[in-house]
Design goal:
Layout lengths: L11 E4 L6 H15 L3 E6 L5 H14 L3 E7 L2 H10 L4 E5 L8 E8 L7 H14 L11 E3 L1 H13 L10 E6 L5 H14 L4 E6 L21 H9 L4 E5 L6 E4 L5 E2 L1 H15 L4 E4 L5 H9 L3 E4 L4 H11 L3 E3 L5 E3 L5 E2 L3 H13 L3 H11 L6 E4 L3 H12 L5 E3 L4 E4 L3 E7 L5 E8 L6 H12 L2 E2 L1
Parallel strand pairs: 2-3, 2-4, 3-6, 7-8, 7-9, 12-13, 12-14
Antiparallel strand pairs: 1-5, 4-5, 9-10, 10-11, 14-15, 15-16, 17-21, 17-22, 18-19, 19-20, 20-21
Helix pairs in contact: 1-2, 1-4, 3-5, 5-6, 8-9
Length: 459
């Protein structure tokens, strides 16, 4: 039995022709159907060249296991999530490599009700089954149905349901789809908004899906990719800009001056929006950068709940606490009323309504938060021994810490600053985040001192 090395810590991804191909996609599809005893499975794919063929192979595996396939065509990961709930399917598969290099592809999977897979009882079980190919013969081959149009319309209706269209004011918004899968889906949302009378003007950048990614892999988190969106915001005097990654489950914002808005501040802003809608609600956040979010939630009378980083953990925590919203600084945003799943489209819809209602710009909404709780952003260090690097830091700092939290890595809190240090589950990296209580000047000093102890090379 050959190990399938495309199974990573959280999802499936690999180098095409090296550790992932159409035959492996078939095995994964068949394993998903057999493990879930699936009567029907949603399948969608992103804009990469190999994605349609991988999806077709996975669909063949699903059908051979006796499952019907509901094909939604080129779609974002979140469209697959919603279709699983909308159509009452037993599972969902999205063929996507998101922001990975062009020679990669992958697969994301959820089970019924759009729930994340449990690592041990679901994800690892599917891996073992795909490796062993211990198939159970189905009594009959499943059928395949094309429900792309119906699935998209149901998704668009759900996304627009998060806003009050009548409250919108004339706004100009820059949208950078990065030549990924976002363009057609965004157009469907925009067309319906305009039909409903929304006075919005959209400036589209790198909008058409293109498997060659002529403008680079769509990963707006990278600083070198900020200018392409920011420059259009400034040149067009837009109200704000939004950029998507390849499967658009993450979105990134730029204010009216073209300034990038780090994800931790977007989490706080969205938390505030939802607490205005439902006072006293619970808000889930990851442990990396927390003070801004916790402060906003406390001011608004909500309850902040900390979760380990990662979509499966955030979703599980939200379901356990019935939280209305959850956010990660990495630009993943999760919504109770979207099957507790993450969406890259819902955030810009919410920000559009906020700016319209308030008459305040996005930059005005976040500038005071930058000053109150400055953050270093995430620094990555490639090291030979992650455990040794982390111990070097802890041995120096643990004695002076007011508290140490081990929800995800190590979070050490001091009088007016804190840091989170954690190892990557998939790469030889140590990740560092530092934040402070109003003392931006001290951030660089803290980061420099910690970097010396971590060693390695900045990645």
């Amino acid at each position: 039995m050959n190990e399938l090395t495309c199974f990573k810590a959280y999802d499936i991804r690999g180098e095409i022709g090296v550790n992932i191909d159409e035959a492996i996609a078939y095995r994964i599809g068949r394993a998903v159907a057999q493990h879930c005893d699936a009567k029907s499975v949603i399948i969608g794919f992103d804009a990469r060249e190999t994605s349609p063929a991988f999806a077709a192979s996975a669909a063949e595996g699903l059908r051979d296991a006796g499952s019907d396939v509901i094909n939604i065509g080129m779609a974002g990961t979140e469209e697959m999530y919603w279709a699983v709930t909308e159509f009452g399917a037993c599972a969902g598969i999205e063929v996507t490599a998101s922001h990975n290099p062009i020679n990669y592809n992958g697969i994301k999977i959820v089970k019924s009700k759009s729930q994340p897979l449990d690592d041990l009882t679901d994800f690892q079980a599917i891996k073992v089954l795909a490796e062993s190919q211990a198939w159970t013969e189905a009594s009959e081959i499943g059928s395949e149905f094309d429900h792309a149009q119906e699935a998209r319309q149901a998704y668009v209706d759900r996304v627009i349901g998060f806003m009050e269209v009548g409250a919108l004011k004339p706004l100009k918004i820059v949208v950078n789809s990065g030549n990924g899968a976002a363009g057609p889906t965004f157009d469907a949302i925009a067309d319906q908004l305009l039909t409903l009378g929304a006075p919005l003007e959209f400036m589209r950048v790198h909008h058409t899906p293109d498997a060659t990614f002529p403008n680079g892999i769509p990963n707006p988190l990278l600083p070198e990719n900020h200018a392409v969106t920011a420059d259009v915001v400034k040149s067009e005097s837009a109200d704000f800009g939004v950029a998507f990654d390849g499967d658009f489950d993450r979105c990134f914002f730029f204010d009216e001056n073209g300034q990038f808005v780090p994800g931790e501040y977007v989490v706080g802003l969205l938390a505030s929006i939802f607490l205005e809608k439902e006072a006293g609600s619970k808000i889930v956040h990851d442990p990396r950068v927390i003070w801004n979010t916790q402060d906003i939630v406390a001011q608004k009378g909500g309850v902040a709940v900390q979760s380990k980083t990662g979509h499966a953990f955030i979703k599980q925590t939200m379901r356990a606490h019935e939280a209305i919203y959850g956010g990660e600084m990495s630009a993943h945003h999760y919504f109770r009323d979207f099957a507790y799943c993450d969406s890259g489209m819902i955030p810009w819809v919410l920000i559009t309504e906020l700016v319209s209602r308030s008459g305040r710009s996005l930059g005005d909404w976040v500038k005071d938060r930058f000053a109150a709780f400055p953050s270093s952003g995430e620094s990555n260090f490639k090291v030979d021994d992650a455990d040794e690097a982390i111990e070097n830091v802890l041995s120096t700092y643990r004695g002076g810490a007011l508290s140490i939290d081990e929800t995800d890595g190590f979070s050490l809190t001091f009088d007016d600053w804190r840091f989170n240090l954690r190892r990557s589950n998939t790469e030889p990296l140590v990740r560092l985040n530092v934040e402070s209580n109003g003392k931006a000047d001290a951030l660089a000093t803290h980061v420099s001192a910690l970097a010396d102890l971590i060693g390695g090379v900045r990645a």
